[in-house]
Recover the amino acids of this structure.
């Protein structure tokens, strides 16, 4: 079968061009590939922007969550996607993730592991490396602030206990919640996780602060030290 010749988007009928289609019919009328095509602006000599984006999405099983896990370098492996286009895609997907993080409640009440999971899940989702965040709480478990304390590799994150306690004093927190992720997908805490938790509890006692929980995140769920009776 002969291949259809490549036709540039600018040669399409105006109603079929992604930008014009968005203006005339609204954003919901566009497919995922058409929205991505607007981001990258152009394809290659042999492939329109829409066709290129269709091909990328096809490789991801048309799953935007899988697409959001790709790095700039991985996107650049596609012919027609240079660094600038890859950065545009990554930035747009990150904005979408942050939009979901936005809460109408300025100071959410984080009085259960489920609430902690729902509040932090989008931050940890799809991370290829470990991060360690601490939630600082006022009375009634109302959030005062959150801070990233450490960032590491696939199975280790350096954590400065003194920094955690210094911020607790600075925020005048009554309690804290420890959180970190396991990119490997393992829900059970490691020996180091347990040892670190115990050290945090002892250090927090010195400044009259409680450690309410330590929650471990994966893309499929979470593990709570408190729920498991370890706190």
């Amino acid at each position: 079968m002969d291949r259809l010749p490549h036709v540039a988007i600018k040669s399409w009928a105006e109603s079929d061009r992604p930008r014009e289609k968005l203006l005339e019919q609204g954003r919901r009328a566009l497919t995922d590939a058409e929205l991505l095509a607007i981001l990258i602006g152009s394809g290659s000599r042999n492939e329109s922007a829409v066709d290129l984006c269709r091909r990328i999405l096809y490789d991801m099983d048309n799953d935007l969550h899988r697409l959001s896990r790709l790095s700039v370098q991985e996107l650049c492996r596609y012919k027609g996607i240079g660094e600038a286009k890859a950065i545009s895609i990554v930035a747009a997907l990150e904005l979408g993730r942050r939009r979901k993080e936005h809460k109408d409640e300025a100071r959410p009440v984080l009085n259960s592991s489920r609430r902690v999971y729902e509040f932090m899940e989008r931050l940890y989702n799809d991370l290829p490396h470990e991060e360690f965040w601490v939630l600082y709480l006022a009375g009634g478990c109302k959030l005062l602030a959150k801070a990233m304390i450490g960032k590491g590799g696939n199975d280790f994150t350096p954590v400065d206990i003194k920094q955690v306690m210094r911020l607790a004093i600075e925020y005048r927190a009554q309690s804290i919640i420890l959180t970190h992720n396991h990119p490997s997908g393992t829900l059970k805490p490691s020996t180091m996780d347990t040892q670190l938790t115990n050290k945090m509890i002892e250090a927090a006692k010195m400044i009259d602060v409680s450690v309410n929980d330590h929650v471990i995140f994966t893309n499929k769920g979470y593990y709570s030290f408190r729920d498991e009776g370890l706190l």
